[in-house]
Amino acid sequence: MVKSVADVENVWLSVERIKKISDRVIGIGPFGLGLDGLLTWIPGLGTIYTLGAGGWLVVQALRVKAGPATLARMVGYLTVDTATGVVPIAGDAIDALFPGHLMAAKALQKHIESTHWVEMSEREAHEQGVHDSHREEMRANRKLKRVIYLHD
Asked: Per-residue pLDDT tens for 70-121?
């Protein structure tokens, strides 16, 4: 689990790197090609990369306490990405064009960006009388959907 806002920012940045490496090394308008799309043509290696990078994204989501909806969305994208790569030739072509890692990474980044991160436990916030102010900060910013206490 992450313990500071700096840790959360590092997760966001590392997810951004995977997003670009996997699906956007080369960008052509709305389309892109990355390591995932290139390795899919090498039997076995593409699947190993897809599962490894996808698993890593899910671990990062768990580290930042992503909710069930975010995790489900990510796993859905990654499942489609993996399943298409298993089908010979036609599946490989679809996998090369389907940006599963990019979509899963964006879902996780959206979770991170829509969370009010607090470097204390919820118990400490109650004891110090600042719990309600954290809720008010979240309500005042329409982009924020939840408060996560990093020391819980």
From this structure: 999 999 999 999 998 778 888 888 888 889 999 999 999 999 999 999 999 9
- In sequence order, what are the beta bridge partners of 146? 115
Cα–Cα distance, 33 to 31 (Å, whole number) = 7
CB half-sphere exposure, 139, CA atoms < 13 A: 6
pTM of the model: 0.93
Reduce the secondary structure of 19-33 to three states and give it as a string.
HHHHHCCEEECCEEE
The distance between the two most distant Cα atoms of the chain, rounded to a whole number of Å, is: 60
> Rounded distance, CA 100 to CA 79, Å?
8
By the 8 A CB rule, do 34 and 24 touch?
yes
